[in-house]
Amino acid sequence: MLPARDANLDSEAAVGIVQRLRPVQVLLVSRDPRFASMATFLLSRHGFDVVRTRTIPGPGELRAAREPVVVDLDSFPGAAAQLAERESPTLLVSERPRGGRLGAHRVLSKWGPFDRFVEELEALSAETAVAAVAHV
Questions:
Q1: pLDDT at 63
Q2: Which of 23-27, 76-80, 121-125 has the lowest mean pLDDT?
Q3: Which of 42, 34, 110 is nearest to 70 (CA)?
Q4: What is the pLDDT of residue 132?
Q5: Residue 66 contacts residue 128 (beta carbons within 8 Å)
Q6: Which residues, in sequence order, are CB contacts of 61 under 8 Å at separation 6+?
Q7: Backbone angles phi and psi of 82, in degrees to 5
Q8: Residues 69, 60 contacting (CB under 8 angstroms)
Q9: Long-range residue pairs from 35-42, CB within 8 A, at least 24 positions apart, any chain
Q10: pTM
């Protein structure tokens, strides 16, 4: 016999209950060693598989990447033009996040609350999963 369904359990809460079979891979693009080390350590503790690079991928590689990408705009001030064409999830960080958005991409404070950073990456990874299922 199945347990009774809890009417108070909404779909967002139910999503949090499901465990990942594989960690979400995140591409972290930064030349700032302090930020890259801190973000890698903290994201790993939250179950992300972090791949770090000190060079920004080319426009074709960025468009093709399916995993969430985190770009440190302070390390790559000219990256805005490349990122404007990227449709896949991208989270931008900066010491001076003006306006909170760059086109369709969220811009967070580089040294802001880490919980917010994790929440944004969780949302981006969910968007990626939905898009991958839609393309099947």
A1: 65
A2: 76-80
A3: 110
A4: 46
A5: yes
A6: none
A7: -65, -40
A8: no
A9: 35/72, 35/93, 35/110, 35/111, 36/72, 39/70, 39/117, 42/114, 42/117, 42/118
A10: 0.73
User: What is the DSSP-derived secondary structure letter of residue 58?
Assistant: P
Confirm if 72 and 93 have CB atoms less than 8 A apart: yes
Count how many Cα atoms sit within 13 Å of the Cα of residue 126 in the half-sphere of its side chain: 11
State the pLDDT at residue 21.
66
Q: Which residue has the tokens 């891979």?
A: 25
Question: Sheet containing 101-102: which strands, arranged edge to edge?
Answer: 48-53, 24-29, 69-72, 90-94, 105-109, 101-102
Sequence-separated (6 or more) residues with CB below 8 Å from residue 81: none
Query: How far from 13 is each of 16, 18, 50, 80, 86, CA to CA, in Å?
Result: 5, 9, 25, 35, 30
pLDDT of residue 124 exceeding 70: yes
How far apart, in Å, do the first and last CA atoms of the chain sit? 34
- Helix (H) or strand (E) holding 53, with range, is strand 48-53
